[in-house]
Design brief:
The complex is a heterodimer. Chain A has 15 helices and 16 strands. Chain A is an alpha/beta fold. Chain B is an alpha/beta fold. In chain B, 12% of the residues lie in helices and 22% in strands. The radius of gyration of chain B is 18 Å and the shape is elongated. The chains are: A alpha/beta, B alpha/beta. At the A-B interface, helix 6 of A face helix 2 of B.
Chain lengths: 443, 227
């Protein structure tokens, strides 16, 4: 009301030019640089939360939760490798580099994964002795930059993961800002200290699946065909990428959706390129089935896996295993409320801290600062990760038993329904209460 | 001299036999016949063995070499001596793309020409090309020396770090942040040594040196057009 008691139009915020958008426009105009951050897509996309398990009833017979066994073991790399990786649980730790993460954080990941009977993975920058020493199963990433790549470490690996892309930035390279290029990181990467280190988006010595097939031959020859070779792709064209990875000779395909994290890249890349994890799984499985290699070439899915329910849903859709990155960091202590006052000093808050590239992480995880690193006890943090992995496994087993399965791999799409049309279409499972999903023939 | 017929006996047997050598074997000289363009010949070696390939090879010959000397009496496909750590690889003919890619050490000698992206992401390897090189060579080169007796194609040394490039002939164009640099006495010495080890008939004084201007080492939006 104004002074004459005439009603006035209330102020309306624009949905298009929202406050966060306007703030970003102001930040860009003040600084002249795009926003770089860590983590994966923060926007809301169809996800595993949009699926439900149906559970057993008259038509399905459940297993007794406290008496009957539900297996969780998984073997990866059975196609060509002489020594496939055998894991106690189908939840692995995704590739994260020493450089992006502190040495104690990498050690903690190795400790936690090993205690839970699963594998961890190197990242851009090579393999550290601490990481190898604390990881009973270690996957060695073979990346475009080849930082720290050498045949001795290659032969120490339990598997090799040829990284073609990642979900946070499919088609993009990496950037490790100078603040994190310490003496040790610089030496491992053969770079001057303090520079902004770029990682190429393409491999330097092959292009396309025909070349990749020969590259894999070389890697197998160097490692005596002993260890599995994974190919990791970002979720963009999952059917064709999976088919081409199989054609190129992969033992395992790792498929990373857009919620999958990165150490640092442009926010615009993270939020606007790639597919949600949920949309990736069924096309990839379809490719494996069409080629007659589903379960022979294993599929590992990553990007936004948080709970045992997510694990079970990914596996029900056809994955053989999952990988976690961001969730593992949170288990170690990333974004913990106990550092809230320090997050506020950095202009952020608990749960939103994503400037991992700046090296100022109060939790001492995404940093190379000697003092901050001391805040993370690798033994305690490793124990937290082990606990978390165990809980996720128990949760997945609980669901599998309720659906009548004695192995997590026996979960199937028929165990699921979708809460939304979008999720039904992406996961190719019926909308709840119906026997239909968008795209299903005959309707 | 051990003679291995690749066509008759297969790749796995060859690489397995060569990789098993540990420096104490008397089998220090090997001759590989009938390579016929096969890929991944003599990869992952790690002993001071002398290997001669009697003919041309496919991709990744002598990949990730350590200590060994591999001589190819022919031309090589893409990625010869990729990620080499130490030792010597000599190609009597021409080399396809990515020769010496990401190499950390050792010496790669190409007596003919090398195609595009020779020395891409080089990390300490020394490469001597008697002939010409193609475009985008030493892209993102981090360390080591690339010596070219002939001409260089477009965008030499694009986005390079601390690698050095010595070219005797013309350079069609320099890549982003790559500039001509002063040839100081220490560079003459480096070049003299490399030319001698590569059996190259050239004088160090005939070369120009190129390397990073170091302007792209830290991001600056005013350099955005250069990226």
């Amino acid at each position: 009301m104004d002074s004459n008691n005439i009603p006035r139009t209330v102020p309306i915020q624009s949905a298009t030019f929202s406050n966060p958008i306007n703030a970003e426009i102001r930040r860009a105009s003040a600084t002249g640089i795009y926003d770089i951050r860590g983590g994966g897509a923060k926007r809301k996309v169809p996800h595993f939360d949009d699926l439900l398990f149906l559970g057993a009833s008259i038509s399905r017979y459940p297993l007794e939760g406290y008496r009957e066994k539900c297996e969780t073991k998984v073997t990866l790399g059975t196609r060509f490798a002489k020594k496939p990786i055998e894991l106690d649980i189908p939840i692995t730790i995704a590739g994260m580099s020493f450089g992006a993460l502190s040495g104690p954080a990498k050690e903690a990941l190795g400790r936690g994964a090993s205690a839970a009977g699963t594998s961890t993975t190197t990242g851009d920058g090579g393999m550290t002795p601490e990481e190898r020493g604390h990881s009973t199963k270690l996957v060695y990433q073979y990346l475009p930059s080849r930082y720290g790549m050498n045949p001795d470490d290659l032969r120490k690996a339990d598997a090799i993961e040829v990284v073609v892309g990642q979900g946070a930035k499919p088609g993009g390279g990496g950037m490790l800002l100078g603040q994190k290029i310490s003496d040790r990181v610089a030496e491992m990467r053969t770079l001057p200290k303090g520079i902004d280190q770029r990682s190429a988006c393409r491999h330097p010595d092959w292009t396309g699946p025909d070349d990749l097939e020969i590259k894999i031959l070389e890697l197998r020859e160097i490692t005596d065909w002993q260890v599995p070779i994974y190919i990791k792709v970002g979720g963009t064209r999952p059917y064709y990428d999976t088919a081409l990875a199989v054609k190129a000779g992969a033992d395992v395909v790792v498929l990373d959706g857009m919620q999958g994290g990165t150490a640092a890249t442009q926010d615009v890349f993270i939020e606007h390129v790639g597919l949600p994890t949920l949309a990736c799984i069924r096309p990839a499985v379809q490719a494996l089935q069409d080629l007659g290699v589903h379960r022979e070439v294993q599929l590992v899915v990553s990007g936004g896996i948080r709970t045992g329910a997510d694990v079970a849903k990914a596996m029900a859709l056809g994955a053989d295993a999952v990988a976690i990155g961001t969730a593992a960091l949170i288990a170690l202590g990333d974004n913990d409320p106990k550092w809230e006052s320090e997050y506020q000093k950095l202009g952020t808050t608990t749960g939103a801290y994503d400037d991992w590239h700046e090296g100022k992480d109060p939790a001492g995880i995404t940093t190379q600062d000697a003092e901050l690193m001391k805040r993370l006890d690798p033994v305690d943090a490793g124990r937290r990760l082990r606990n978390y992995l165990k809980v996720m496994t128990l949760e997945a087993q609980t669901i599998a038993r309720a659906c009548g399965h004695n192995h997590l791999h026996n979960l199937e799409p028929e165990d699921l329904c979708a809460l939304t049309m979008e999720a039904a279409a992406m996961a190719r499972v019926p909308l709840a209460g119906t026997d239909w999903y968008p795209g299903k023939a005959g309707f | 001299m051990q003679t291995y017929d690749l066509e008759a006996n297969g790749l796995r047997g060859l690489n397995s036999a060569l990789q098993e050598l540990n420096g104490s074997s008397n089998k220090t000289a090997w001759e590989i016949v009938n390579p016929k363009g096969s890929h991944a010949i003599a990869v992952g070696l790690n002993s001071p063995v002398e290997v001669t390939v009697k003919g041309s090879t496919g991709y990744y010959c002598a990949g990730m070499n350590q200590q060994a000397t591999v001589r190819v009496e022919g031309s090589v496909g893409p990625g010869v001596a990729e990620n080499m750590m130490s030792g010597t690889v000599i190609v009597e003919g021409d080399a396809s793309q990515y020769a010496g890619a990401t190499g950390h050490g050792g010496l790669l000698v190409i007596k003919g020409n090398a195609s595009s992206r020779c020395g891409i992401s080089m990390k300490g390897i020394d490469i001597v090309v008697h002939g010409n090189i193609g475009h985008m060579c030493a892209f993102m080169g981090q360390a080591g020396n690339l010596v070219v007796l002939g001409d260089a194609g477009d965008a030499l040394g694009d986005s390079c770090y601390e690698a050095r490039f010595f070219v005797r002939g013309s350079v069609k164009s320099l890549g982003a942040d790559c500039i001509e640099k002063e040839m100081r006495p220490e560079h003459i010495e480096i070049l003299k040594d490399l030319l001698a080890r590569a059996g190259a008939d050239a004088k160090p004084e005939e070369f120009k040196r190129y390397g990073s201007a170091r302007k792209l080492y830290n991001f600056d939006v005013d350099n955005a057009q250069a990226y």
